Amino acid sequence: MSKILLVTGGSRGIGAAVCRKAAALSYDVAVNYNSARDRADEIVEDVKKLGQRAIAVQADWGSEEDILRTYEIVDQELGPVTAVVHNAGIDYETSIADMELEGLLRVFEVNVFGLFLSAREALKRMSSQSGGPGGSIVNVGSISARYGGLPGDVIYASSKGAVDSFTKGLAHELADHGVRVNCVRPGLIRTDIFESSIGLDAAVEIAKKGSMLKRIGEPEEIANMVLWLCSDEASYVTNAVYDVDGGRGNRPA
After folding, report:
1. Does residue 252 surpass a pLDDT of 60?
2. Which whole number is the average pLDDT over 62-71?
3. Residue 15, Cβ neighbours under 10 Å: how many?
4. Active-site entry in 27, 71, 156, 242
5. Predicted TM-score of the model (pTM)
6. Structural domains in the chain?
7. Where are the alpha helices (DSSP H) in the chain?
8. CB-based contact 10:187 (threshold 8 Å)
9. Do β-strands 83-86 and 27-33 pair in parallel, antiparallel, or remain unpaired?
10. Is residue 172 within 8 Å of 213, Cβ to Cβ?
């Protein structure tokens, strides 16, 4: 049976690393993207070069309509998913004093509500109670859930705290369906998420000072953990939250 993986936010950073690693492990890959079509197409070509099937699917992961359409496209072009990695996420940096409801809602639409909707659709395809093969869901959270985030990141950190709780509750609910659910919480990772905030150079310096390993993490190091959790090697692992943060601990800086 083919292993079919859907990666949300798969066109860049951690998501792109997950797609490439998955292809090397013989997964066919659906690369979800929101706006970076050129990057998504590059990832698709990288997957195909490794001998696996791949498609790029545009979808806003805060839209139920887009999520439903994504699963239908994957069904038609690759087959029902056997694993899902929820990596798509956005930030809204602001003090709570200056917060606007629209920004708050948008973060939770993508970072939290989208995961609920996506898990519902994945379960329809994976559940052993409905004749599915079982499967794995991996949610990409953040260690910011543990300490409240960098300055101005209370909203993002709170959304990732919801991801932790969602992982735990969903794992209990889906255990009898043959679906394992886990969470990976990255620390500071070398991605372009910092371009609109503190900048990558600042993130590198924070990681040097705040982590035991004295460096920033690489997307591939997160992908390694994510794909292990998707694999049969982790067949006895569910309801787990793994920090991959270089031993950064509970410090925001």
Report:
1. no
2. 98
3. 30
4. 156
5. 0.94
6. 3-244 (3.40.50.720)
7. 13-24, 37-49, 64-77, 101-108, 114-126, 144-147, 154-174, 200-210, 219-230
8. no
9. unpaired
10. no
